[in-house]
Amino acid sequence: MPFLSRTLGHALGVLATGGVAVWALLAPAGTYLPVTFLGFDAVLFNVDAFSKLMGVIFGFIGAAAVLYSYSSDAENRQTAFALGYVGTSIGAVFAGDWLTMVFFWELMAVTSTLLVWDYGGEAVRAGFRYAIYHGLGGSLLMAAVVWHYTSVGSFLFSASDGIVAGIPAALAAVGIGVNVGFVGLHTWLPDTYPRPHVAASVFLSVYTTKTGVYGLARAFPDGNLAIAYMGAAMALVGVVYALLQNDMRRLLSYHIQSQVGYMVAGVGVGTALATAGAFAHVFNHILYKALLFMTAGVVIARTDEQSLKYLGGLGRALPVTALAFTVAALSISGFPGFNGFVSKGMITAAAHKEHLDGIFYILLAAGVGTFMSFIKFGYYAFLKEQTGTWNLKRSVTGQRVAMLSVASLCVALGLYPDALFALLPGSTADAHPFTLGHLGEGFALAALGVVGFAVLKKPLSKIGPGIDVDAVIEPATFYGMRGLVRGVTDLFAAVDRMAVEAARRSLAVAGDPYGAVRGPLSALVGGSEDALRPGSLRASIATSVLLVLLVLAATLVGLL
Predict the structure, then answer these.
(1) How many CB atoms lie within 10 A of CB 34?
(2) Which of 23, 181, 421, 498 has the most crowded Cβ, counting Cβ within 10 A?
(3) Which positions ≥6 away from 533 have C-beta within 8 Å?
(4) Which residues share a beta bridge with 33?
């Protein structure tokens, strides 16, 4: 990319990522590449139902994002970092063992950080915080994998049924939890994704969190109830904070946490239907979330405005963008006929079937909040009357092609979900997206969302973005690290002073050995220091006393 023209470089990027999607679709399950790496058995490449689905969607959305980048005037260097990010993510989901997966997992953190940093400005500090979060998360996952190896004797996925229970599983859950945005570990999402170039945000919205869901499913293939409840909490917390936001990309970033919460809940429930629903939602979420960031990017680029408070009336000025946004909003909200309706319904149905009523109702409440969020977004950006009219250049051809291609898939998979079911791991026998009960649930959530927004519209406009845990974590981390650095620096300074003083005294003794003991001896045997000059009686007595003391000390050391 850096050495080619923009047109040729981006064309090559589209072909490479699109080729991954086609190739992953056609690759036969069971294909693998075993090697010996650092003396360990490893599988650098493995095709199964999980990795095949991830490869198809990662490749397809990568191609759409590269086309969008080209049309959004992204430089070759930025797209090169983005393609490195895509490549390392693909490496992680096609790994056949924990060692290979962690290797690509860490490279994914590096390449995504470089993608953020490339934009400069506010993105640099956000990128540092992002790197620290993912460095800590990756370290915890690595510790879990090493501990797992000591218990199992192999890094291969096939050697055990997930990560060994106990401390390794806990470390893996928290380490992967950073990537998926567990509550309390999620603030890097709204902090980072609104900062870089709008095209970079499209890539960032896709790969890290979804690779995390994939890792969670590998670590806990049979589910885990605590993880299921954490997923439900993510869905609700994310949507509440999203409702409070006016910055478009910050709103969308909180909704990543919320929607990934559905996937985490599905993985935690662990049944065949729940697992299929989780990965169906991975596939669908990548489509509509990338589309939402594309539409927000067009609005930001054309108006030079990030806040919904200062927008309005863009439906007429940007009709294709408004249409694409409407499709994406209905998809993420789970409206019947759109892809999110299918996958959300599978997860809630799985929770209901397992009598996990707490998770079921929390996810339904999050669904109402999602409708409210995107009614708010759509109203303030595209419908609300604006003083005067926007005189804007419409989205360029490449942006329209990328947005409409993704939007078409959102509709197609919503109307014909069997095309997606064919790719899913787990069972879809009980999915039944078009039952009367499921359809009624979808329409009821939509109605509650409309009523909820109408009732809360004015209060929401007066409330700020809310105080998240980063309001405590970031100052605590900053002052804590500053205190630690100062403490360590002061300790080193004290040690340095002691070492210098010891060296000074040693040099003094080496230069005048007798002078060094003259003072203490005068106190011991009495008399002035002048009386202890060499050759005097007192000096002889003092020397004898010193020799006796040295012999006694040596004897004592020998006995000990």
Answers:
(1) 13
(2) 181
(3) 539
(4) 45
Tell me the per-residue pLDDT of 303-341, one tens digit each, with 9 for 90 and over: 999 999 999 889 888 999 999 999 999 999 999 999 999
| Predicted local confidence at residue 532, as pLDDT | 46
Enumerate the β-bridge partners of residue 32: 46
The 3-state DSSP composition of the chain as helix, strand, coil percent (nearest 5) reads 75, 5, 20
Calpha distance 375→446 (Å, rounded): 10
Handedness of CA 313, 318, 320, 326 (dihedral sign): negative
Tokens describing residue 282: 């991975």
Distance (Å, rounded) from C-alpha 516 to C-alpha 20? 79
Would the pLDDT of 256 be above 50? Answer: yes
**Minimal CA–CA distance to 377: which of 334, 325, 331?**
325
Calculate the CA 528 to chain-centre distance.
75
Tokens describing residue 218: 């590998």
* The token pair that represents 113 in the structure block: 């950080």
Query: Residue type at 249?
Result: R
555's enclosing H/E stretch is helix 537-559
Please give the average per-residue pLDDT across 105-134, as a whole number: 95
Task: Convert the pLDDT of each residue in 345-362 to its tens digit.
Answer: 999 999 999 999 999 999
Residues in a beta bridge with 392: none
Residue whose token pair is 């759509």: 378
Average pLDDT, the chain: 91
Pair of tokens at residue 502: 């010891």
Predicted pLDDT of residue 480? 85
Residue 107 has a CB neighbour count (10 Å cut-off) of: 18
For the segment 472-531, what is each residue's pLDDT rounded down to a tens digit? 887 887 788 889 899 999 999 999 999 898 888 778 767 666 565 555 556 555 555 555
Q: Compute the distance between CA of residue 523 and CA of residue 132 in angstroms, rounded to an integer.
A: 60
Q: What radius of gyration do the chain's Cα atoms show?
A: 32
DSSP secondary structure, 275-342, as one string = HHHHHHHHHHHHHHHHHHHHHHHHHHHHH---BGGG---HHHHSHHHHHHHHHHHHHHHT-TTSHHHH
Token digits of residue 173: 């859950």
Q: Give the Cα-Cα-Cα angle 263, 266, 269 (nearest 5 degrees).
A: 150
Q: Where would I find the beta strands (DSSP E) of 9-109?
A: 32-37, 40-46
